[in-house]
What does this fold into?
Amino acid sequence: MNTPEINTSVFKRLRFVLVETSRAGNIGAVARAIKTMGFTDLVLVNPRFPDAVADPEAVAFASGAQDVLAGARIVGSIGEALEGCNFAAAVSARLREFSPPVLSPREFAGHVAGQGELSAALIFGNERFGLPNQIVEQCNVLINIPANPDYSSLNLAQAAQVLAYECRVAGETGEAAPSAIGFHGDAASLDQIEGMYAHLEQALVAIDFLDADNPKKLMPRLKRLFSRTQLETEEVNILRGIARHIIKARA
It folds into this structure.
C-alpha cells in the first residue's frame, strides 16, 4: 500500500486573507492577482457588503479568475480565517510599536517556500484603515513592502500581487531551503498559540504580576517576544503546563 504523498508546494500552503474589505472590485482584483501567480486560497473576513463574491463589480474585476472568486470563503472572524494555519503575516505600510518582527516580501517568501510544514496566511486590512493592532500583534511577522517613501501607496490588489509574485519565485527556485541541522518539531498552530497567551495571562494575574484592570502593555510585549521565535506544539504545551501549575498553586 502506497503512502499518499504530502503536498508541500507553497501554492497549496499559502492563504490570502482580506479583512473588512470595502470595495467589491478590490476583492475581484485580488482574486485575479493571486490566480496569475498560481494561488487559489482566498478568505474574506466580514466584507462590508452582502454576497461579496457574487457582486457584479467583484466579478468584473476578477476577469478570468471567477473560479478563485467563487471559491472564496466568507467568515466572521480572523480566528476562523486562520483555522489550519500555523504561520501568519500581517501586511501593513505602517510599522507598530509592538509589531512582530518585520520582513520584506522576499524574506517572507523564502521563509515560507523553504519550510514545507508551514501553512501560512497573508493578511491584508481594510483599504482605508488597514489592520487593527490586535490582529497585527497575534501574527508571527509583519510585512512591509519597500516603496517610494514620498508616495508609498499601493492598492489592495497591487500589494497582493507583489506578495504572490515573490512567493511564486521562491516556490519555483527553492530559495531558503530549511536547515537539516537539529530537531524540528511540529509548528504550533495560531489557535494553539492564542490559547497559550490566554493561559499565560491567567497565570500572571493569579500571581499578581499582571493587573487585569490595568494591563498596560505587558501582553503585547510578551506576544512580541514570542513572535520572534517559531513556537512548536511541544513548546506551547510546556508553557501551558507551567501556567496550569501556577494557577493551581494559587487556587
